[in-house]
Every structure is written in structure tokens, then in C-alpha cells.
Amino acid sequence: MKLTTWQAGIPEQLPIEAFMYTRDTGIRSVQHDQRRFHELTGVVLPIIKITLANTFQGQATFEYREVDQAILPESPTKPKVPKTYNAAGDHLKMSDIYTDAHVEVEVPHYAGMHATDTIRARWQGRVNYNSEIITVGDPPGKRLIAIPRLEVVDNIGRSVEVGYSIKEKGVGETIESARLTLHIDPQAVDPLLAPSYSNSKVSVNYGGETGYTVRVRWVGVTTHETESQDVTSGQANVFDIPSAWVSENSGKPVLINYSIVRKNSNEQRMFSQVLRVNL
Description:
Blueprint: E1 19-21, H1 27-41, E2 47-51, E3 61-64, E4 91-92, E5 102-107, E6 118-124, E7 128-130, E8 134-135, E9 143-148, H2 149-153, E10 159-167, E11 174-176, E12 180-184, E13 196-198, E14 201-204, E15 212-219, E16 223-225, E17 229-230, E18 237-240, H3 243-247, E19 253-262, E20 270-271, E21 275-278
Parallel strand pairs: 1-2, 4-12
Antiparallel strand pairs: 2-3, 5-9, 6-7, 6-8, 6-10, 10-11, 10-12, 13-14, 14-18, 15-16, 15-17, 15-19, 19-20, 19-21
């Protein structure tokens, strides 16, 4: 069988999946090839040992051995969250994203990044959130992926694990990055536990004190906010949800939370955890 020689200078386009050897004397050669391929592409391909069958009826075996590898694969570098305020990049406060619709997760230009790779952000908090899958595109480089603001709000005063996943050229195994442990600063009133919902009524009972007002946010196909109510210490605030808000979200998920603020002040509102319901 004859094969055309591969064109020079296109290592990332070569259809190589692994480096293989049969005799122990061949290990140095494939280790050299593995190192060289990694230098040129940033991709770590495995070295596989083949043990041939001793008889026609026998079967060959293919074995991955860590001891054979000249380079071991590493998890891609952890992401960044550009809105963090400290040098370590692992603390976030609500006042810095108060009017933002989302928080961005920065996926770095990881080794071997290719235009056809697909990536998504991972946000593991009270509820795990995965972003939409996006294609890296040309030219490869760092990418910003939006995390909805409510996913941040839901974890005020807590820590979340932030990462991203990769599918090389959009296929094959999912590769998970190293994780960033992101600490979201608590508010002056913490925690503000999620409201409850039943029979088109949202109940807020966080044990608040007189002198504050509270209102409910209802996020479904459309975002709605109720009128504000005064808070009375030791009493729940109950909000009637219009039937139109309910019907437009029939069979769909709705995210519900509330916010409080001191009456007649210029303070920023403080936000509760999020209740998620399917109507």
C-alpha cells in the first residue's frame, strides 16, 4: 500500500490520534514524537503500547500506560471573572454588577485552542448552571461567556465553582478546565432566603424589620416586578401574582426572588436567593 506524503507545516491538520509502539526499544522514538507534536500544536496525544497476538486466533491488546507518557495531559487553565475586585481574582461584590444584566466568565487562550473547538461555561452554586455551547471561531483567543445576573444573586454570601468545558473540534470527549472558586460577598442583611410560591401567591418571610420595603421580581418569558410593600417585623408579606404572569409561563420555568431596601434612603437594594418553579 502506498500513501501520499503529508504536506509539511500543517501539524494541526494531521489525522493523528495516538503514537503507538510494539517493542520496548521503540518507546524513545514515540516519546520524541509526542513531545514534538505537543511543541507544534499544544495538543497532548497519548502513547499506546500494542501487544501483538502470539497466534492467529489470538487478539492484540492496546494499552495506555502513564509510565510511557513523555507528557501527561493537564486540565486547561482556570477561567477568570473580569469583574472581581481583588488581586487574586476570586472575590466579587454585588455593588460592582448592580446594574449589569450578566457577569462574564473569561475562557483563556488555552493550549491547542482551535477555531472549531466548542466551549461552555460552568457555574456550580446553589443550582448548577451551564451556558450555551459556543464555537471558538477565528482567530482563536480568549472568549467571554455571559452568566445571567440572577445566578450570581442566588449565591450572594456563598462561593461558587467556575469553570469551562471543551470539545476539541466540536466532537469527542468533554475536557473540563481547572476551577476558580469565586466568593460572592454577603450583603448587610444575610442571608435573604428564597420566597415561597403557591396558588398564584408569593410569600416573603425573612424576619425583616420595620422601616424597609420589599418587592418581588418574576422572571419568565417576560420580567415583571410587583409594587413595593412595607415590611412589618414578624409578619410575612404576601404578593398576589396576576393571572397573565402565570398563564404566559404555562409549562415553563420561572425564577422568583425579592429585594429589600430601607425606606427613604439612597441605598442599593439587597437581593434574596432565587426560587425556581415550573408552572
